């Protein structure tokens, strides 16, 4: 049918991002549009939309915050009359942030492996470490504004739906964990890895945990 053909064509286009259509992945517009297709009635489109966001996270590190910000903006615009969509999308935002953490973990392992491979032995059995080759992406500051993501979690923490509240709480935990991972990576893994973000934040989850103590 015509609808199936259109769905197949759209999935094929999504598969090209960011491999063949890299510039699209660099656009704020695409990170705002793709989350909408994550709730498509076509399961193939839904799955491919999620994979597009994951690929941008993996292969375009400088666009990572744009991905989660686009997802957050989409969730905030969802009507309260659709709590299941809100919960599902919030859960997807948490998964995206966890994937960012996984990417950082992989990059740190890769960095450590590169350091080991670049070690050489000089006379006297002393070890030297040669600097890594220049990577143009490393000159770009990594953006992460924890306060913006905390605000999203706080909004839905006041929901009347208990499942949404639970997911919002998990989001707040993930914001803190991701921010700490980015900070640790910038301090310990790469001397050329710069972090662009606000002053040391006060996490909402810290306040909640202190009040529970």
Describe the structure.
The protein is mainly alpha-helical. 68% of the residues lie in helices and 6% in strands. It has helices at residues 2-15, 22-25, 28-37, 43-59, 64-77, 83-118, 146-157, 162-189, 204-212; strands spanning 119-122, 126-129, 142-143, 195-196. The termini are far apart.
Summarize the model shown.
The protein is mostly helical.
Please outline the helices and strands.
Layout: H1 2-15, H2 22-25, H3 28-37, H4 43-59, H5 64-77, H6 83-118, E1 119-122, E2 126-129, E3 142-143, H7 146-157, H8 162-189, E4 195-196, H9 204-212
Helix pairs in contact: 1-4, 3-4, 3-5, 4-6, 5-6, 6-8, 7-8
Q: Largest sheet at a glance?
A: 2 strands, antiparallel
The helix content, as a percent range, equals 55-70%
Q: What Rg, in angstroms, do the CA atoms define?
A: 20 Å
User: pLDDT under 50 segments (min length 5)?
Assistant: 125-139
The N- to C-terminal Cα distance equals 59 Å
* Average pLDDT reading: 79
């Amino acid at each position: 049918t015509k609808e199936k053909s259109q769905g197949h064509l759209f999935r094929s286009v999504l598969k090209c991002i960011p491999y063949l259509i890299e510039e699209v992945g660099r656009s704020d517009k695409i990170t705002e549009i793709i989350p909408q297709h994550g709730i498509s009635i076509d399961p193939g489109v839904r799955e491919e939309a999620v994979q597009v966001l994951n690929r941008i996270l993996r292969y375009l590190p400088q666009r990572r915050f744009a991905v989660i910000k686009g997802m957050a903006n989409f969730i905030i615009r969802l009507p309260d009359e659709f709590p299941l969509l809100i919960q599902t999308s919030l859960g997807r935002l948490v998964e995206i942030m966890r994937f960012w953490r996984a990417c950082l973990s992989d990059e740190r392992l890769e960095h450590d492996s590169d350091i080991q491979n670049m070690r050489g032995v000089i006379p006297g059995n002393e070890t030297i470490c040669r600097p890594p080759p220049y990577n143009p992406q490393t000159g770009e500051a990594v953006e992460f504004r924890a306060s913006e993501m905390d605000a999203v979690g706080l909004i839905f923490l006041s929901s009347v739906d208990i499942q949404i509240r639970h997911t919002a709480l998990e989001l707040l935990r993930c914001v803190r964990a991701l921010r700490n991972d980015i900070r640790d990576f910038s301090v310990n893994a790469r001397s050329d890895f710069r972090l662009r973000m606000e002053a040391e934040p006060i996490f909402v989850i810290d306040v909640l945990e202190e009040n529970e103590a």
